[in-house]
Fold these 2 entries.
Entry 1:
Amino acid sequence: MKRSGRFITLLIGAIVIACFSGRALAADDKAAKPADLVLTGDAVCTSCHDASDDATPTLANRHPSVMAIGKTRHGTRADGRTPSCTSCHGESDQHRKTRGNTKPDVLFSKQGATPVEARNAACLSCHKEGNRIGWHTSTHGLQDLSCSSCHSVHAQRDKVREKQTQAEVCFACHKEQRNQISKASHHPVVEGKMTCSSCHNVHGDNPKMLVKASTNETCFTCHMEKRGPFVHNHQPVTEDCGICHQPHGTTIPNLLKARAPFLCQDCHSHDSHPGQAAALPNAPSNSTSMLGTVARGCLNCHTNIHGGNSTVNSATAGRFRR
Ligand code: HEC
Ligand code: HEC
Ligand code: HEC
Ligand code: HEC
Ligand code: HEC
Ligand code: HEC
Ligand code: HEC
Ligand code: HEC
Ligand code: HEC
Ligand code: HEC
């Protein structure tokens, strides 16, 4: 990588000199057989496309420096599998013959006429394995996203694969998640400690494109202690963490969708609470809504809301108390 970086610096230098020294050099160039500039076999394209393309970026907000591809994994000359220009853009015979007056076979920009399937097929010819196995039936695949909706292959830094910048790429299309993740209680994505892809495989066909087959399995990859096994399970917890938590962010601490007692009273009775006795406040009626207004409410007593292991007292053990 370093070597190709230096190579490009030299190359740019050479071009600058070539420009200044004018026609004499241009004549020499014509005589010489074009050499590969970045990748083995790329001379068919780099005889015309060289670092001078960089001065006129074609994509409004990405500025692909065409030759910067030499500094990416796609520029590793030592690797026999490395693509050349034609592996992605096609042989483009017509384009070459007409000296750029017709389009290359595969053009990745949205304005280009190449259908999405053909653009993606160019990448998938080498990358259909691993994470991408489910691409065609993934939500993104079915929505006709192209690989280059997210990836910038010519840029030295591919924003979507860097922790600090990935979310920006997603937010271009996912405004609602931008809003959620910047709420007071959130997973540390904007802080750069984790990324959207910590939970999502955006090439995959799992539900909600999660990295695992279910929400719970995804959460357990980091919050193992919530998996149990517990002696007493709380049914909504084993069912779906998302019943109580909004994984991106909320205004309520602990990413909760609502505060106790309201959170609990979605399912548990508003107007009765058993064993209303000495330990419990003296309420006019045996009402959980009365209990809920006491201090921190339900969670003051039902502390092990994700599941309890207590075997001390069979009457309280199943109630997620210590
Ligand atoms: C004989 C010169 C020549 C050769 C050889 C050549 N091109 Fe081009 N190419 C051009 C010109 C001229 C343009 C139009 C100006 C521009 O957009 O930079 C162009 C434009 C392009 C574009 C942008 C098209 C658009 O509409 O945005 C791509 C992509 C491209 N060429 C890829 C390639 C590839 C890949 C090869 C090798 C297979 C290749 N070119 C070989 C001259 C050439
Ligand atoms: C790994 C696949 C791949 C390889 C290899 C590749 N390109 Fe590209 N090229 C793309 C994609 C994708 C874009 C769209 C912009 C981006 O993602 O950076 C693009 C954009 C371009 C553009 C700008 C026009 C546009 O559509 O935005 C030119 C010119 C170009 N490539 C020429 C080349 C040349 C010359 C080579 C060989 C040195 C080459 N490409 C190698 C995938 C590739
Ligand atoms: C001719 C084969 C080939 C084609 C076509 C190809 N790639 Fe690659 N790609 C590779 C190789 C080889 C590597 C480096 C080894 C690896 O990571 O597996 C790579 C690596 C990558 C990486 C990871 C880079 C890293 O730093 O780890 C991404 C992302 C990628 N390619 C995206 C694309 C996209 C998007 C396209 C289409 C525009 C594309 N590739 C087309 C062969 C190809
Ligand atoms: C919605 C945005 C998005 C789209 C669309 C997308 N990718 Fe990715 N890609 C990512 C992100 C994020 C990563 C890094 C995290 C990961 O590996 O899941 C990545 C990683 C990769 C890697 C390197 C990871 C590895 O396994 O080594 C390759 C290769 C790749 N993508 C190829 C593709 C191809 C091919 C397509 C089109 C079929 C595509 N991507 C479409 C966002 C995207
Ligand atoms: C070019 C636009 C675009 C970009 C960029 C993009 N997405 Fe999407 N994404 C979509 C569309 C379109 C859908 C389907 C409709 C919807 O749910 O909004 C979708 C759906 C999703 C879904 C829901 C999946 C499901 O099965 O319901 C997730 C999760 C997702 N995207 C994550 C991401 C992540 C993470 C990134 C960044 C790495 C990203 N997206 C980048 C367009 C995009
Ligand atoms: C902590 C794990 C986690 C992180 C980090 C995360 N997500 Fe999600 N995301 C989920 C889960 C779980 C769901 C499914 C929620 C559900 O079932 O309603 C989801 C759903 C989605 C959906 C579909 C929403 C819908 O209503 O169908 C989109 C789009 C999405 N996420 C985008 C993103 C983006 C963009 C990022 C990064 C800014 C991101 N996610 C980060 C876990 C996560
Ligand atoms: C990639 C690792 C990872 C995954 C996967 C993950 N989390 Fe987290 N989670 C974290 C980190 C890191 C924190 C922040 C801890 C801190 O700030 O001390 C956190 C914090 C939390 C918090 C406490 C927030 C607060 O305000 O302190 C809750 C609740 C939570 N996660 C729920 C979930 C749920 C539900 C899922 C599954 C949808 C999930 N997490 C998936 C890493 C992860
Ligand atoms: C019945 C609602 C509910 C469900 C379902 C639920 N949680 Fe929670 N979770 C809570 C409440 C309430 C808190 C706050 C606890 C407190 O304040 O003592 C919390 C706090 C957390 C915390 C941060 C504090 C801690 O205990 O580490 C994490 C992490 C967490 N939950 C993960 C999960 C995971 C993972 C799942 C799915 C396996 C899940 N939760 C399912 C209600 C729920
Ligand atoms: C999505 C619905 C739902 C939510 C929200 C919910 N629970 Fe539950 N909870 C249940 C179900 C279902 C059971 C099992 C009932 C049974 O076994 O009779 C249960 C059981 C319990 C039990 C044990 C009951 C017993 O008979 O052993 C307690 C205590 C409890 N929940 C407290 C809470 C608290 C406190 C909250 C709020 C933080 C809460 N629950 C939120 C559905 C929910
Ligand atoms: C002051 C402590 C305390 C508070 C506050 C409290 N509980 Fe309880 N809860 C208990 C005890 C103790 C039991 C076991 C009583 C028994 O089995 O006789 C119990 C039992 C339960 C049960 C099991 C009901 C059954 O039929 O067996 C549920 C459900 C429950 N509580 C939900 C809640 C909810 C929801 C809240 C908040 C609105 C709440 N509790 C607030 C102490 C408390």
Entry 2:
Amino acid sequence: MRSLAALSLLLVFAACRSGGAGATGAGTAAKIVTPPEVTPAAVALGDSLFNNGGCMRCHGAKGVGAANGPVLADTQWDQLTTGSFEEIRAIIVSGVPKDKFKVASRPNAMPARGGRMNLNDTQITAVSAYVWTLSHK
Ligand code: HEC
């Protein structure tokens, strides 16, 4: 009896491993996992930096988009591929030169580190956290 129970357990386990792998992967992709950097305090600081400072000028209030910059409050990206926190952070650090634009009619390059805002690393993380929330609701 004991060995039969053990065998059926093993079979169930094996079935889950092989058959269940795809389903598990799909579930992970659909679920939004909040990165550890996206804390309420970081988002609040990022909100004020974004919406009082230079980002809003080009991306519109709350990232709704404007003539000078793409929408950040959806999941369609011009420059990013996945919209991950790391990608968002990297592009805020580097900016986007005009020769890399997807929409060539946009008038100005996106400045590195917010240009005149000259964001330090803490501020970069905060703005990234805020921007991440715009597309992960
Ligand atoms: C001078 C205008 C300007 C400013 C200021 C600016 N951006 Fe941008 N941003 C752009 C342009 C233009 C692009 C790329 C558009 C393209 O590829 O056609 C871009 C791209 C992005 C992207 C990638 C969007 C995508 O669809 O892939 C993110 C994220 C972003 N900016 C965040 C920010 C943040 C945060 C700030 C403030 C620290 C900021 N930007 C300041 C103009 C600006």
